Amino acid sequence: MSRLTTLLGQRLRRDWLQLTLWIGGTMGLALVGVSAVASTYGTEQERAALLATVMANPVILLFRGLPSGPGEQAFIVFLLMPFLVMMAAFMSSFLAVRHTRGDEESGRLELVAATTAGRTVPTIATIVHGVLANLLLGLLVAAAFLTGGSPAEGSWLAGFTAACGGLTYLGVALLAAQLMRTSRGANSLAVWVLVVTYFIAGIGNAVGTPSDDLTHMESSWLTWLSPFGWAENTRAFDENLWWPALLCLGAFAVLAGAALALQAVRDLGASIVPERQGRAAARATLSSPTALVSRLATGSTVGWMAGAFFTGALSTSLGSVVNEIGAENPAVADLLKALSAEADLEQAVVVVFFTMVGLLAACAGVQTVARARQEEAHGTAEPVLATPVQRVRWLADFVVIGFIAIVLTCAAAYLGAWVGAAGRENGADLTSDAFVAAWGQAVAASVFLALTALIFTIAPRWTIPLGWTLVTTAILFGLYGPLLGLPEWVTNLSPFTVAPIPSGSEVDLRGMWWLLLVTGAGAAASLTLMQRRELASAG
Fold it and tell me: Do residues 206 and 62 touch, judged by C-beta distance below 8 A?
């Protein structure tokens, strides 16, 4: 027991700030949601009207939860539950990989395994650590609902559901750490499972069966293939079903057990999925450090481009549908206009969807710069820097390739928008709007690229957590700020919100100049500081 408590204490010391940010942010989202929905959708009639709109356009369910009635608390859960589970899932996934495959890669696990703790106790400590983190998150989410005067049973169920959802993805990441050879591969696998299961639940809800009064949705069988679907079907503050959350606990137990079983049959440093064999001699196209960075970033960039293409196609293909709905329900039109600051509804739809494209582009840029930190921490940067390649040139390559990833992601979205607008009467106007929104969001995404590079030079060990925290906070303020009734000055803190957009037949530059200023200053400062910074090992 002393070995377990010692390792658990070591994990808590390493993670206290990151866990504070994730858990505090999740509780903050619940608190803001509880207060904002009461003021923004104060009457049951307004909430019922919005739910009827959702039933008329089920695609909205790809980005929201499962409608369970127009009651105030049930409506809050409809808006927030997928995102509460998602934040718990991200927190749990990164925690699991960091203390398993990450420690194994850095050599830390080998040192611990040489003691009486062996190889199993550190993994058990990680499991206990993750359980405690999710338990605290669930308690604080429940407290947020109780503080807003919500009924006790629904509040505790909402918190329990968020915690159980996080535990499921803790198990996913533990298993991914056994399957993949690197922490990068384990994190990528865990995140892709998270994203795919999120959309499976959304599609399952979208093809479900609405109730006669258009306030409830009975999800299809597809939803039951996803932990997000299990969490949403608890229907907190409506039916208050506890058993779907127990499916999350059961999945966690199975996945964690499988991870422990696989760890027992593999060698330290090995993986279940064999590492791909490299070529005996590199191609001529890999003769420069820039080409090497490009090769490292290609896989992730293609993934972000695929998501952007799909989002861009939706931005123009759904415009006419939403226009009809907005004519019948002014509240929906007002919400979309608030999210986009646009008077024309179809133009507003393009702007809102391209805000999501900006998020994907920012992720592509941040992930590329974060890869520089991973190369440094894993020791693979040293062989490159031992050649005539200078440190500034090395970092500049990651920044340049990150910017190219941003441009390609936005370009893929524009291509998707062009495909979606094909055959439409106003297709030319929509693709023109999409072009403006695309380069505007590329400017916004570049801010995160530059700031992450600056963090890398100032506080390298915080590159990954702070880089992703900036993106998450900005999208919460920018995309959900108007929905949650946040003040305008708060939503304008997000680069996504003040990026240039189409406005009628013109272009509203909005905050373009300060976005360019921050990007240029951040990139210049990072490259300047890199001249004097020594390599920082993993810590």
Answer: yes
Torsion sign over Cα 256, 257, 258, 259: positive
> Tokens for 6?
């010692």
Check if the beta carbon of residue 110 is closer than 8 Å to that of residue 268: yes
> What's phi and psi for 503, nearest 5 deg?
-135, 100
| CA atoms within 13 Å, Cβ hemisphere of 32 | 21
Q: Phi/psi zone of residue 376: left (φ > 0), alpha (ψ -120 to 50 degrees), beta?
A: alpha
How far apart are the C-alpha atoms of 11 and 96, rounded to whole Å? 11
Residues counted in the chain? 539
In this predicted model, what pLDDT tens digit does every residue of 93-136 receive, in sequence order?
A: 999 999 999 888 878 888 888 888 878 889 999 999 999 999 99
Using CA of residue 101, residue 107, residue 108, residue 111, what is the dihedral sign?
positive
The closest alpha carbon to 125, from 288, 283, 7, belongs to: 7
Query: Which of 340, 368, 343, 344 is CA-nearest to residue 355?
Result: 340
Q: Whole-model pTM?
A: 0.77
d(CA 283, CA 82): 45
| Amino acid letter, residue 266 | R
φ, ψ at 352 (rounded to 5°) = -65, -45
* Buried residues in 177-193 as b, exposed as e (16+ CB within 10 A): bbbbbbbbbbbbbbbeb
Residue 310 CA to residue 420 CA, distance in Å, equals: 9
**Location of structure tokens 């693979």:** 380
Q: Of the candidates 199, 11, 444, which has an alpha carbon nearest to the alpha carbon of residue 191?
A: 199
CA dist 419 and 470 (Å) reads 32
Report pLDDT digits (tens) over 273-306: 877 666 666 666 677 888 888 888 888 898 889 8
Distance of alpha carbon 335 from alpha carbon 349, whole angstroms: 11
